Amino acid sequence: MFNNKKVIVVMPAYNAVKTLRRTYDEVMDQGIVDLVIVVDDGSRDETVTVARTLPCTRLCVHPSNRGYGANQKTCYKLAIEEGGDIIIMVHPDYQYTPKLIPAMSSMIGNNLYHCVLGSRILGGYALEGGMPVWKYAANRMLTFAENLLLGAKLSEYHTGYRAFSRELLEKLPLDSNSDDFVFDNQMLAQILWYGYTIAEVSCPTQYAADSSSINFHRSVKYGIGCILTALSFRLTKMNLIRSRLFINHA
């Protein structure tokens, strides 16, 4: 609990057997997490077997691989169902350190923000932490374009380390979003659409052999999806188109 608010960590898992337990242990070491929800998206390894041994955990298994976005949809639905007030997504591949959970929870739990991102760019150590140069360059170019189109000033849109309030998750039309990786980007665009401020904290970057990653082809597809999402946001703002992603504008 934090300020009498229930803290739930969600882990969208896919072939995470090597790092799941380590990530879980460090999550629980923070001392404020009430429940961990692991959603396995059709892993081909022993991720589910390991998850079943973890206490204070609710496990949901997709019988087949539905995609990263679909995994998150299940994560957030279950977190709300379990009464979470502060919901934090932590990837079980240990790319993002769980040690930031207290800081991110305090920003949500003290009613300062409804969304907090763990940014790999703030602090300037992304490359030193192992981020591939081509990914760093793509991150910078995409973020620049998205800030222009979305009217924001984020250091990056592509981190998978995110904290949300229950109020925010209940408001967003997440079912309208993609089941693929661009779900992350669509979600942030929707948060900005509803007029919420997105906060950021500096997060150390850790790239290792066990960390998940998408290949170059899927990265290109993701980048195109990000630009199309931002363009859709801007054109809808200008009343030139209607988008299923951006509805009920407050």
* Approximate strand percentage: 15-25%
Give the % helix: 25-40%
C-alpha end-to-end distance: 31 Å
| Secondary structure tally, helices | 8
3D structure, described in words:
It is built from 8 helices and 7 strands. The protein has one domain: Spore Coat Polysaccharide Biosynthesis Protein SpsA, Chain A, CATH 3.90.550. Strand 1, helix 1 (20-29) and strand 2 (35-41) form a beta-alpha-beta unit. The mean pLDDT is 94. It has helices spanning 20-29, 47-51, 68-81, 101-109, 133-150, 166-171, 183-193, 216-237; strands at 7-13, 35-41, 57-62, 86-89, 115-119, 162-165, 198-202. A 7-stranded mixed β-sheet has the order 3-2-1-4-6-5-7, with helices on both faces.
Short description:
The protein is of the alpha/beta class. The chain has helices spanning 20-29, 47-51, 68-81, 101-109, 133-150, 166-171, 183-193, 216-237; strands at residues 7-13, 35-41, 57-62, 86-89, 115-119, 162-165, 198-202.
Summary keywords:
alpha/beta, 250 residues, single chain, Spore Coat Polysaccharide Biosynthesis Protein SpsA, Chain A, 7 strands, 15% strand, 7-stranded mixed β-sheet, globular, 8 helices
What topology does this entry show?
Blueprint: E1 7-13, H1 20-29, E2 35-41, H2 47-51, E3 57-62, H3 68-81, E4 86-89, H4 101-109, E5 115-119, H5 133-150, E6 162-165, H6 166-171, H7 183-193, E7 198-202, H8 216-237
Parallel strand pairs: 1-2, 1-4, 2-3, 5-7
Antiparallel strand pairs: 4-6, 5-6
Helix pairs in contact: 5-8, 7-8
